[in-house]
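Review form for a predicted model. The reviewer records the input and the model, then writes brief findings.
Reviewer: anonymous (R2)
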Amino acid sequence: MINAKFIYREEELEEILVTGHANYKKHGEDIVCAAVSAATLVTANAIEHLRLSHKIDLVVNDGYFKLAQKELDSTVQGLMENLRYTLIDLEKQYPKYIKNQKEG
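Model under review:
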């Protein structure tokens, strides 16, 4: 199962942590993992493309994605909220394979 945690501080989304594998299908055919991977990487790439990488900490490994704001930025905040909405929509479609949790 994929677990996504959205960590808030004072109503600002400060960090997103996504871990695990969906195990919807075998490796290479897992559309749930592919969708989550695409959503997280699009977010990270958008931040980099907008030259805002200095405002975040980012760790991407197999089955692990962590995006945290070092300093609050409205554009980064918007991209992180968009990722949250995307993962919530995916959870609605695949509730056995994705679990989202809000903290703070």
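Findings: The chain has one domain: 2-103.
Further findings: The longest helix spans residues 74-93.
Recommendation: see findings above.
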